[in-house]
Structures are given as C-alpha cells and as structure tokens.
Amino acid sequence: MDARTKTDHAAERIAHLRAEIERHDHLYYVLDQPAITDAEYDALMNDLKRLEAEHPDLVTPDSPTQRVGGKPAEGFKKAQHSRPMLSLDNVYSVEELADWDRRVRELAGGLPVKYVAELKLDGLSIALRYEPAAHGGSRLVAGITRGDGQTGEDVTTNARTIHSIPLSIAASKLKKAEMPVAFEVRGEVVMPAAAFQRLNEEREQQGLPAAVNPRNAAAGTLRTLEPSIVAQRRLDFYAYFLLVEGEYLAAGQQATLDALAALGFRVNPHRKLVATLEEMTEFINAAEAERDKLGYEIDGVVLKVDSHATQLRLGYTGRAPRWAIAYKFTARSGVTQMQGITVQVGRTGKLTPVAELAPVFIGGTTVSRATLHNADFIEKLGVKPGDWVKVERGGDVIPKVVEVIADKEHPRGKHPFHFPTKCPECGSEVVRAEGEVDYRCVNADCPAKLRESLLHFGGREVMNIEGLGEAVVQQLLDRGMVRGVADLYKLTVKQLAELERFAEKSATTLVEQIEGSKKAGLARVLMGLGIRFVGERTAELLAQEFGSIDALMEASAAELERVEEVGPRISQAILEFFAQPKNRALVEHLRKAGVDMTAEKKQRTSQLAGLTFVLTGTLPTMTRDQAKAKIEAAGGKTAGSVSKKTSYVVAGEEAGSKLDKARELKVPVIDEAGLLTLLQAGATTS
Ligand code: IVH
Fold it and tell me: Do the beta carbons of residue 245 and residue 189 sit within 8 Å?
C-alpha cells in the first residue's frame, strides 16, 4: 500500500471507531444502557488512540480521545452569548404559583395553556454551540458559561470532558430530528452526588477544606484550568433548550426536549406536560419526595409554557421570561443561634471545630450541630459564639455553617473564639504542619485517636462490623478490653455480654460480625489501618497492584508510584507508616488473628508491550522518571538511545540530538500528550 492509501485507510477506520465510540458513549452515559463490556469499550478506544498517535494530523477536537488530556488553559476567554441567558423568577408556595398561573392565562388572552414541568437542577447553566462538521453532521465548537447572561467564559475544553455532551452528531440524527447543522443547546451542568462525595473525601485526605455543595463544586470544576482534573470529576449535563439562529424552536418546549433526546443529549426523564394547578402540585410533590433518591441535587421545579407562540406573546421582564417560573423547595438551610464551638479530635488527631446550635428544623430533620471545618474557616467567616448563623444541609451531607447573619434582629456574639492550643481530649500540644489547614494532636496515644480509629475500622466502608458503634467502643475502652484494633479479634461472647445493654444474643452477633470482617480483604484492611491519604480508591488500587500486605510493605517509593493516582506524597505516607515498628506489629497481630490481607491482583495489560520508548527533553507535567514508570507499568520498555528499533521518541522542551536522530531514522516522535493518549483508557484491566 502506498502512503496515501494507507492514510485513507486509517482515516476510514478512525471515522468508524469514532462513530462506534460515540454510539456507546450515548448508550452508556445518556441512556444508562451499555451494550458492550468495559473491556470491549477500552479496546475500541485503544485502537483509536493508537491510530491517532500514528496519524497525528488526523486528530480532531471532536474525537472521543480528546475528551481527556487537553492542554491546561491559561485562563478563559470571554464569549458573547447568541442571545442572553436569562434567569427565572421564583415562587415559594402553591398560592404564589396559582397567582403566576392566573397571570399567564390572562396574558395568553384566553388561549388554552399547557406547561412542561421539569426538575430545577442545582448546577450551572451552559450554552453549547454546534457547527457543521466534515462528516456532514455537527460538531461541538464551543461551551460557554452563563456569566452575567450577556457574556460568559469559554470553557470548551472542559465541556468536552463531560461524556453526556456529544462531541459530534451524525447527519442521520440531525435529519431524523429535522435539525439544521448549526444550533445551540442550553442546559445544566451538575456534579452527581457520588462524584461530590468522592471529591470531598479526596479533599479531606489532602488536608483541603471540603467543597460546600455540588453546585459550587460543579462551577469550580468547570472553571478548572486543568482539563484532566475536570475529566476525573465526572460532571454531567442535562439539556433543556435548543436554539437555531438565536431562536427557540417553534415546535414548543415538549417537542424541544424530545428533539434534544433524539439528537443524543441527556434530557431529564422527570418531565411532564401539565395543565392544571393540581397537576402542577402533583408533579412538585412527587419531585420533592424523590429528591434524595435522584443522585444529584435539585432545588425546585421549573414550569415552562409549552407553546412557542404563547411564549412569544408573554415575552420577558428585565431578567426573566414571563412564560417560565421556578417553584423553589423549602430551604434546606435555616438560621439559628450558635451557642458555642466545640472541638472534636479525629482518628488522625485532626481537630475539627463543631458549631453547637440551638436546634433548628431543616428539610425534615432537626439539626443541632454543624461543621465549621477548620480554624481558617472560622477566621474567614469571622464567626463568634453567640452569633446567628445560616446552616445548610444537602442530601446526605453533614450540615455546615455557611454564613454569619448580622442585622438588628440578630446581634453578634461578644467574644471571639480562640482555637485551642492543647488537645481537648488529652491536653497534649497541637500543631499545624506547614501548608496544611488542620491542627493535629501530637500524642500518639491520645484516647480520642484510639476511639476514632476503632470506629473507623468497624465502619461500613471499612471492615463493616455492624454493632461496633460509639457506645460499645467507649465501653470497650473504659473497661480496658481493647487497646488497639487487633484486640477486637480477641473479644469473646462472655466478655461482651457484660457490657451495658448487651445480652448473650447481641454479644454473639457482634462476635460473628467481627469474625466475618476477617474476610473483608486487603483493600479494606488498608483503609482500616488509617494510613494518611489512603482512602477507598487508593486502597483498592494498591490492593490490586500488590495482591498482599507483604508485597506492599516491601515496595519502594518508585514501585508504589507505579500505581495510578499514587504520587510522592502518598508513597511517602505509606513508607512512613510501615517504617514504624508499632504499625508493623499491628499488621502481625491482625495476621495472627486470621485477618485476610490478600487481594486478587489485576493483570497488567500489555498495552505498550513490544514498544520501546526513548524520552528526551523536559516534559510539561511529568519528570522523565515518572514517564518511564508509566511506560513500564503498561508493559513498554524505555531505552537511552534512539535506534531503528525505537518505536517512539517522546520529546519535550529543548529536546536535542535524540530528536535529530529520530528524524533521521524516521522514528515517530510524540509529545507528552501523545504518550498519555497511548497510555489512557486503563493501564490495567481485569
Ligand atoms: S430554564 C430563561 N430549566 O435555574 C430560562 N433552568 O434560577 C432559564 N435551572 O439559570 C433557564 N434547571 O441554571 C431552566 N430545567 C431547568 C433548570 C434551570 C436548573 C437553573 C438554570 C437557571 C437557573 C434560574
């Protein structure tokens, strides 16, 4: 085959793979109906990545490989909206809603009015522009945040990382939906509850303050300058408007949502055409009842006049359409007086300030305590005991103080709060390490640490020992029955039956639970040990990589860092942990007790097997050692000099003679992004 036909052939294959991947993305991310296994999907993606690495000139921004790994942005450019992105007026009660409905009907001049009821997703709105693509369909060319409604920020690269946003739309789909190739889609970017929880777990492990709510987290993520971080956060997008040449579709809102779904966008399934106030309240009540089960935050229901003609007739006020309204749920926040601040000591010795509140009813529960995160947060808020504060509670998140209320009705507290300089549990010194937000108790034997370690060890996500709650742990400690987590395995039914509110039956159940936890496996044991920065995901990855605690304890920093997501900070924490005789002894005690500390090792894929790389110059984000470790982890080899056998030269800034040599020998040259492309889509599969 000559070079030309070879390229044509590759182009064809690339187009085919892209279409297949887009189809499976739609099935998986939009319809939640995957048709192939992850491994099969990865295989398609790997094929595409390999072809694109071989034909860099065929890479286009709408390729599915470009969802991740775009270049970090230096800032966001401003972009003008095709027509203003307006806001909505709010109502807070059925009476107000009834008033609005009446006004709409009056203005509609007696024509019958129907509304589309949708969920009000608590995220941020974004406009996506699609333009003609070479394949005859449309491709995503811009993603713009709402901004001030007139101009927003161009966050296209980040928007591309969201899998429920189609990067390209086939001509056949456009035809079916009777859509032109150029159009704009508007909708809401949200951070799903699971992603939010994961984000905050990670932030906690990194000693960073928790994100306040999924909306802020989604907004912050979309404005992150590093697209690979955005990709990890798993944002989602729900479409609700479709504009052609700056105009809403004449077919009406219901038809618009159908068209969006037909084009491959994720449209929220909770939507309904309603006509009467009764139907509206029914939808609202159902939404409120489902609220906690949705997996993402909503803060109300939006009602939109369905008919486009009626929408035009009703028009706009300054900032919002008259044809739509937001019915807001009762606040999940409340205002109350903060009676004092107590400081809790966690398992790592971390001191967390907690606001003690006059009980306040928020979204269905009584809240009397809320987190104040850390000393910096207290200082930033300027909050003093006695202040009135606003407390927020989201889905299953711990209540938090978000604001100090200061007006005539809410006088300020008198005395400032001084963060303790001694541990409130044991009186030892507390210190704050350089660059960290948290203070920690220095006493290794602080009773609070032991208590919290035991509670953590028994926790549902860790060893899952049901019945090992606070009251039991406190009694075990007070009676000197356990002095560390390994002692749990020595407890007998007879001993436990002596505890308060324990009988033979409950004692037997607890012993069985403890016994059962021996089979929890390495990942959970690793979490249970409480190594700093080793949370659920890292523990899982380490367990899969090393397969046993012994292999892990023997590992060097470089070997640890071969594990995805493990960098120098985590590897250091692991090494320090196992360097302590006390911790090694704990492992031995657990082993003697019969705790399983093995895991099934994941087979490495040999994605880069048979390939030899030569690294030269300075790479933008990795050191050469890190790049080497990544290549080797994927089964590739690295060499010091370029020869005919070299598969790729990875060149960074100021690459010198090796690059010349590569050119001379016609060895393909790729940059860091090219290497990452080859490595992506799971360096390991099961
Ligand atoms: S319609 C001109 N529909 O709520 C109409 N907005 O409070 C404006 N939102 O800025 C948007 N879910 O960020 C609409 N189903 C939905 C929505 C929704 C959430 C947000 C959107 C908007 C804000 C207004």
Answer: no
